């Protein structure tokens, strides 16, 4: 359908609905194309179900919400991958920013759509039909399928994008969307089913039906949706606000090159930046300092923090190591600092009962940040307790910058400070030997405590516990060694697995 009228001349609002019916699968298939049936899966109601399908999977008779077991029975050649809802939201946010090339008013429309107020901007792209063609071509080149509807109201544009695709001219909304099903009015599924049983299958049928009986049976929401689509009832369209930008720039009248001068300039930028973060109750997790030299070259100093911060006195010393390695060349004439990763940091309520709360953790966080600038934040790790009686599984290694210390080990018996892979020793019988040889040392046992029987976790496939249960003993030796031994009754043998302090 081609539209030859000008929105500027008619003064009518023009709303565009952009729907991405298979956005999650398109995101994956852009990087790894598949010719056959493909679907993303997501765990729902204790079962793995299909979340998003490509065209080949649709033609094979699969549908969204179908269990993965049934889908493989219908289509043995189905290729699947786990869904990632976070990356889907990021892609939709990227598409929203891309859509601002056509108009400044762009907002989200659910999890798979965008809504644009293109009033007065279509002529900048050669008219409405030319703009829609340009959208389709650009999205197709990016590997993203889309359906587009354009109408004077948001409801009509939504209906066209999802049930018809096309352009509704001003004054001809009912003629354009009348043949569409009643579900195109954004109605609940049970309402649509009840309307179909009454013979009101199309929007045109609803528009001709008496309003009073419909309101009595279905409530005011049905007529509100109909009036919004036909333009008889206003509907607000709010664009998605741009995220706040935390960046400041300082241009110098004369180039500088000394470390102290660069550090002073950085401190001058950090103050206003942290004040803006505090105003928004946010903290910087990653900062980038850009130093522009007089030869138009630039040097970057990146700082990743163990915790979100907005205190300039704590952040500035953490830049010292990076600034000392910067080559100023013939001088630096501009400094720019930007918080590239920001996280919420609400104000904490201070209590007289715990006036020093958080003071110890601040020093630890700064230490983790300093170590992270040298070896990487991911390399600084801490041990956290895990809910398992198996010694090897009673702890996990977590990145210190992205985890919180806490918890306690649930074991009722003491555990050795040093834990290592089991080392066999020569011994027989169910009780620890009086003499043993371990790591080229001959040890004499003076006291034993135990046994503590630990059975394998049958629901885990662990090769090291295939021999069955273990009987653990604490052994004190005359040479001062306190060892942790275990015996395997099913396959008789003795092993040393730990040493107490």
Question: Which secondary structure elements does this structure contain, and how are they paired or packed?
Answer:
Blueprint: H1 7-10, E1 15-19, H2 23-31, E2 38-44, E3 47-53, H3 55-59, H4 68-74, E4 79-82, H5 85-99, E5 106-108, E6 113-117, H6 128-141, E7 147-151, H7 154-163, E8 166-167, H8 173-177, H9 189-197, H10 203-208, H11 211-218, H12 220-230, E9 247-256, H13 259-279, E10 282-293, E11 298-309, H14 312-315, H15 320-324, E12 332-344, H16 359-375, E13 381-385, E14 395-399, E15 418-425, E16 435-438, E17 441-454, E18 470-477, E19 482-487, E20 494-499
Parallel strand pairs: 2-4, 7-8
Antiparallel strand pairs: 1-6, 1-7, 2-3, 5-6, 9-12, 10-11, 10-12, 13-14, 15-20, 16-17, 17-18, 18-19, 19-20
Helix pairs in contact: 7-12, 11-12
Structure explained in plain terms:
The chain contains 16 helices and 20 strands. Strand 10 (282-293) and strand 11 (298-309) form a beta hairpin. It is an alpha+beta fold. Strands 15-20-19-18-17-16 form a six-stranded antiparallel β-sheet, with no helix packed on it. It has three domains: 1-36 and 77-242, Alpha-Beta Plaits, CATH 3.30.70.270; 247-344, 2-Layer Sandwich (Dna Ligase, domain 1), CATH 3.30.1490; 418-499, no CATH class. Helix 7 (154-163) crosses helix 12 (220-230) and helix 11 (211-218) packs across helix 12. The radius of gyration is 33 Å and the shape is flat. The chain has helices at residues 7-10, 23-31, 55-59, 68-74, 85-99, 128-141, 154-163, 173-177, 189-197, 203-208, 211-218, 220-230, 259-279, 312-315, 320-324, 359-375, and strands at residues 15-19, 38-44, 47-53, 79-82, 106-108, 113-117, 147-151, 166-167, 247-256, 282-293, 298-309, 332-344, 381-385, 395-399, 418-425, 435-438, 441-454, 470-477, 482-487, 494-499.
């Amino acid at each position: 359908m081609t539209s030859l009228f000008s929105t500027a001349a008619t003064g009518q609002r023009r709303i565009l609905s952009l729907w991405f019916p298979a956005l999650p699968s398109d995101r994956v298939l852009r990087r790894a194309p598949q010719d056959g049936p493909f679907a993303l899966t997501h765990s729902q109601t204790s079962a793995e179900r299909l979340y998003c399908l490509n065209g080949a999977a649709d033609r094979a008779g699969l549908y969204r919400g179908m269990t993965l077991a049934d889908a493989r029975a219908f289509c043995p050649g189905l290729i699947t991958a786990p869904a990632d809802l976070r990356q889907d939201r990021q892609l939709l946010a990227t598409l929203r920013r891309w859509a601002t090339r056509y108009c400044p008013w762009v907002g989200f429309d659910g999890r798979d759509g965008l809504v644009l107020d293109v009033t007065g901007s279509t002529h900048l792209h050669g008219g409405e039909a030319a703009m829609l063609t340009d959208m389709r071509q650009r999205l197709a080149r990016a590997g993203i399928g889309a359906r587009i509807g354009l109408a004077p109201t948001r409801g009509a544009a939504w209906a066209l994008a999802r049930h018809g695709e096309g352009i509704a001219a001003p004054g001809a909304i009912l003629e354009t969307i009348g043949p569409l099903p009643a579900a195109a009015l954004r109605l609940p599924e049970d309402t649509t089913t009840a309307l179909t049983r009454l013979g009101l299958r199309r929007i045109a049928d609803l528009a001709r039906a008496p309003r009073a009986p419909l309101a009595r049976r279905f409530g005011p929401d049905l007529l509100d949706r109909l009036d919004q689509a036909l333009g008889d009832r206003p509907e607000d369209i709010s664009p998605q606000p741009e995220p706040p930008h935390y960046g400041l720039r300082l241009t110098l009248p004369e180039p500088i090159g000394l470390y102290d001068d660069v550090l002073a300039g950085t401190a001058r930028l950090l103050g206003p930046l942290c004040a803006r973060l505090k105003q928004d109750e946010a903290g910087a997790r990653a900062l980038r300092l850009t130093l522009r030299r007089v030869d138009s070259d630039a040097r970057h100093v990146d700082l990743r923090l163990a915790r979100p911060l907005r205190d300039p006195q704590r952040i500035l010393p953490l830049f010292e190591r990076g600034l000392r390695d910067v080559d100023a060349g013939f001088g630096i004439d501009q400094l720019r600092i930007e918080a590239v990763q920001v996280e919420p940091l609400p104000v904490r309520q201070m209590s007289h009962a715990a006036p020093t709360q958080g003071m110890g953790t601040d020093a630890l966080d700064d230490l983790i940040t300093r170590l992270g600038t040298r070896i990487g934040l991911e390399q600084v790790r801490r041990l956290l307790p895990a809910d398992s009686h198996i010694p090897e599984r009673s702890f996990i290694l977590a990145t210190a910058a992205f985890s919180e210390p806490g918890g306690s080990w649930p074991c009722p018996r003491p555990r050795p400070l040093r834990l290592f892979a089991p080392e066999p020793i020569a011994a027989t019988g169910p009780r620890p030997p009086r003499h043993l040889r371990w790591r080229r040392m001959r040890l004499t046992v003076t006291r034993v405590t135990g046994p503590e029987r630990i059975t394998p976790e049958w629901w885990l496939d662990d090769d090291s516990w295939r021999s069955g249960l273990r009987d653990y003993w604490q052994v004190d030796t005359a040479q001062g060694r306190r060892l942790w031994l275990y015996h395997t009754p099913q396959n008789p043998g003795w092993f040393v697995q730990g040493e107490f302090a």
